[in-house]
Amino acid sequence: MTEPETLTFGAGPDVPNHNWPLMLYRGVLSGGAGEAIRQLESNGWGGAWTNGVYPFTHYHSNAHEVLAVVAGTARLRFGGEQGEEVRVEAGDVAVLPAGTGHQRVDASADFSVVGAYPTGQHDWDLHRPDQEDAPVSRDRVREVPRPAADPVYGPDGPLLALWPAA
């Protein structure tokens, strides 16, 4: 089992972020989007889509999200405007707790990710920093239940230890 890198962000002026860390697995997937979707779904993460990452800062206040890079490379910023830029490539998987700001800074022409959400969180919202609901979002993100399983390694994966139950 590959242990994830972790990044923790405090609440920022533009996004609420979360007390739980963002988890970044390096080189854990092989194959294309279909294989990534099957693996994520087998671990209880569904509602999958395949595309890129928006070029503007945004977050989801009612859902955790996994971004599995299935092609190309990119620089993504996590944690909002004052967060951290991270280079990702095919095979990498980022697991974002609800409220974590994210955006694409730049990417190769073939960059593609599969996004998915835990069971019960497929009807996700999308917030941008220019919306005036940040206080509501800060409260809401902490109420989103912890997933039942890690999207990469299932119920025995690191997520359950790194994201403690409330």
In the CATH hierarchy, what is the architecture at level 2?
Sandwich
The CATH superfamily bears the name: Jelly Rolls
The radius of gyration is 14 Å
CATH topology: Jelly Rolls
- Total strands: 9
Distance between the termini: 26 Å
Biggest sheet, spatial arrangement of strands: 1-2-7-4-9-3
Key terms for this structure?
166 residues, alpha+beta, Jelly Rolls, six-stranded antiparallel sheet, three-stranded antiparallel sheet, 3 helices, Cupin_2, YjiB-like, RmlC-like_jellyroll
Topology:
Blueprint: E1 5-7, E2 22-25, H1 33-42, E3 45-51, E4 65-71, E5 73-78, E6 84-89, E7 93-96, E8 102-107, E9 112-118, H2 134-141, H3 159-162
Antiparallel strand pairs: 1-2, 2-7, 3-9, 4-7, 4-9, 5-6, 5-8
Tell me what you see in this structure.
- With 166 residues, this protein is α+β, with helices and mostly antiparallel strands.
- It has one domain: Jelly Rolls.
- It contains three helices and nine strands, in the order E-E-H-E-E-E-E-E-E-E-H-H.
- Strand 5 (73-78) and strand 6 (84-89) form a beta hairpin.
- It starts with a strand and ends with a helix.
- 40% of the residues are buried.
Summarize the structure in short.
This protein is an alpha+beta fold and 166 residues long.
